[in-house]
Amino acid sequence: MNVRGARAARRMYMLTYGAEPSPKSISVRGASDEIIWCPIIGAAVETAAGWVLLETGIGRRLLEDETSRRSIYASREQPWGVGEDPFLAALQAVGLRPEDFSLAAVSHLHVDHTGGLQHLSAAGVPVFVQAGELSFARERAGIAEAYYAPDYVSERILWRELDGDAELAPGVWALFTPGHTPGHMSYRVDLPESGTWLLAVDAADLSENLNDRVPPGWTADAGDVPRADNSLRRLLREAENLDARLVPGHDGFFWKAVRHPRGGHR
Ligand SMILES: [Zn+2]
Predict the structure, then answer these.
(1) What is the distance between the alpha carbons of residues 197 and 199, in angstroms, rounded to a whole number?
(2) So where does this one cross the membrane (predicted)?
(3) Which residues surround ligand 1, an ion (CB under 5 A)?
């Protein structure tokens, strides 16, 4: 056990909810509009305070809502989810159900991240989100910004609003990384054997963002470009300082490389 042991989480399963086609220019500033396939991912982390779910994927409701889906995904190819209900199927793949979680978090409220919120509210699981993300989603964003209100507008979702960085559970932190959207956050997970992991989520979709230090190509608020640049720099700096594994949010090849071993990453 390394020095981080005392406050570390116990283990982490990687979750795959599905995949989506996306113009590369959204992920990488200055890139072409060629369509790339992006995995839709998350993580389930066991901690001393119970299971913590990071990200909820793409939901069945959107997949079945052809009009909204096609206006968000303009390409001929369309997103898909695992199993009949991607949220339940992704959890089931690692032997978990919504009610097994003590708490959950969503990095931002784009449609490929909000798919499980209704399941979590039905199971009574509180969900951490940045306050600024929730207000942006409620007051300013819509289909044009890839926000799908039926997933997140509900009296029953048990929101826990954050304002910046926060420790969510022993060994699991939210890192405020705005830019891609106004209230975007990434995660830090400390594990006893493999050390520190940083999950960039959409602050860095691809390895290319990290290797070439190229920020995302698109921000939900056009004025947020400098914040996106700062967030990418912050993640790279933290990864260096913490000797962390930095996981991009939508990179197919990278994702295959970090598939968890049996029983999860420890
Ligand atoms: Zn996004």
Answers:
(1) 6
(2) none
(3) 110, 202
Query: Long-range CB contacts (< 8 A, 24+ apart) of 252-257?
Result: 252/19, 252/36, 252/37, 252/38, 252/39, 253/207, 254/206, 254/207, 255/14, 255/16, 255/39, 255/41
What is the whole-number distance in angstroms between the Cα of residue 205 and the centre of ligand 1?
A: 9
CA–CA gap between residue 182 and residue 148 (Å, rounded): 16
Measured in Å, residue 202 CA sits from the centre of ligand 1 at 5
Taking the centre of ligand 1 as the mean of its atom positions, its distance from the CA of residue 179, in whole angstroms, is 10
198-230 tens-digit pLDDT: 999 999 999 999 999 999 999 999 899 999 999
**What would you report as the CA-atom Rg of the chain, rounded to the nearest whole angstrom?**
17
Quick: pLDDT tens for 61-105.
999 999 999 999 998 999 999 999 999 999 999 999 999 999 999
Centre of ligand 1 to C-alpha 6, Å, is 33
DSSP 8-state assignment for residue 110: B
The pLDDT tens digits for 18-52 are: 999 999 999 999 999 999 999 999 999 999 999 99
Residues 5-257: name the CATH superfamily.
Ribonuclease Z/Hydroxyacylglutathione hydrolase-like (3.60.15.10)
**Cα angle: 93, vertex 109, 119; to 5 degrees:** 45
Residue 3 scores a pLDDT above 60: no
Burial class for 66, CB neighbours closer than 10 Å (0-12, 13-18, 19+)? exposed
Do 12 and 191 touch, CB atoms closer than 8 A? yes
Cα 40 to ligand 1 centroid, rounded to whole Å: 10
